[in-house]
């Protein structure tokens, strides 16, 4: 799959007052421990801070491929249940959503746009978002609950997004880590996986390089209140005692 750029949506928790439709699966990924060394494949880049990735295990690719082949068997696709105008998919509902390659993938409804009858969906195994119409969505089938969702929301360690350099950040991260095997150390696992991701040659980290290239701020910059020019943060780095971790 390719990974189109969409804004990181809210509602991934699937919270809703209604409980009559599937919003999550019981099978969960094991939470990595702090200090653990992981091998990951980033699948979607939101900005200099947040991204989605798959954690590589010995059977990761094989298990997901088998599930997708089973899900897209012709007989299975022909028997998938559709939605109708009176009972459209609800925000937070698990579904199967067709992608541009013609295959269906496990997904979640993030938002319904009633004026166009379109839906913003999140692909649970890949981390990307797409706007689709009702014809591209099918009802969930619990027999595909057996494999944990593979897209893990991650945050790069000790960096703050610089909104003025989004294009450069996208180009750099797309080239460095998107779709590539990467090594990462778990720095925090409380609600979101905070990772220190190594560069391809493993001599540095992505966080360090983003700050060196002035594509992101060190996280401590959040506490600086008296800077008028955002670029001045880097000139005043020593004055504000920013850790030499990034130097």
UniProtKB/TrEMBL annotation:
GO terms for cellular component: cytoplasm. SMART domains: TUDOR. It comes from the Eukaryota. Residues 1-21 are annotated as: Disordered. Gene3D superfamilies: 2.30.30.140, 2.40.50.90. InterPro entries: SNase_OB-fold_sf (IPR035437), Tudor (IPR002999), Tudor_domain_containing (IPR050621). Residues 88-147 form the Tudor domain. Residues 1-10 have a biased composition (Polar residues). This is Tudor domain-containing protein.
